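User: For my dataset I need records formatted as: sequence, then structure tokens, nothing else. Please produce one.
Assistant:
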Amino acid sequence: MRDQLVQEFKKVFGDGGDIKVYFAPGRVNLIGEHTDYNGGHVFPCALTIGTYAVARKNDSTKLRFYSMNFSHLGVLEGDVEDLTYNKKNGWTCYPKGIIWTMKKKGFEIPQGMDILYFGNIPNGSGLSSSASIEVLTGFVLKDMWNLPVSNQDLALIGQYSENNYNGVNCGIMDQFAIAMGQKNKAIFLDTATLKYEYADIDLGDCKIVILNTNKKRGLGDSKYNERRAECETALAELQKVVKIDSLGDLDEQQFEIYKGAIKDENRKKRAKHAVYENQRTVKAVEALKQGDLAQFGQLMIASHKSLQYDYEVTGKELDTLVDAALKQEGVIGARMTGAGFGGCAVSIVKGDAIDKFIENVGKEYKEKIGYKADFYVVEIGNGPMILE
């Protein structure tokens, strides 16, 4: 892979200079959805699929971007001296946003660079191709200009860029999972404090299977920001009757006591999801520590139901996939993952049942939705790295 990417880089940008190859993973969240901007816990892991970059400095202030995934667009240019946001810049808004953020935070990036990207995460799938590009770009800049930033800093820079440059009001989870990933471990992260611990993922004879609806969605265009606003209003209403900093500060019983303060039924449902999902995540991690995979699976199923009925972010495609998955033999649990409104579901399936699982779920999905789903059996991998 590395040699292939270098060849492609030279074809696009020419020979010479100090060329280096980098990688950052995608991520999947096992449980804890839409809790990360509500001060709750999340439980994501980095994947072995992700985004590659080949980069070198150039002798100008020009930024030259090329993506093998969007090769028809050719080389897209920018300038380190002018990083003004423009929606027309398409996918390059992600790397540009990182350079803009780093400069805003006082880091010197004195010259331009040529950079080629290649991702083997499906675009718009909810496995965080955008956050992967963000963390990867930050990692490239850190290495090239020897910047004093930690991987945790890269996560925060990625989130700041997404919020303030690209206008998506995302939480910290995606960038954190990608920047801090460790092989065969998931990250139990308290998004309110950024305290985290690594939890071993021992699935025995089971594997993680990702199911892609192939329904594309753009976070900024979806109801993501609307859900966030609903939760913020519900929190403000609750704060009139109970001393809390976030919805993640409440457990289920406390929520039931105080929920009357929320004046709108929809907001009540959104807040209920945030509170109950946070508690499900805490219980799920405990179940894994006890080796109780069956309980973990049940909590995944409950998570999907809550996302479907209380948070209303699943949609026909995801519900069809998850319903079909849960009918199959050897399935421990399944739920949507990511922001919703399309994208992916995640399931835990016994190894010897996977082929039949993919065949059956794929058939039912195509019959009901009219186009095919894609399936990926994934491994849990490390965070960003230089490919020597």
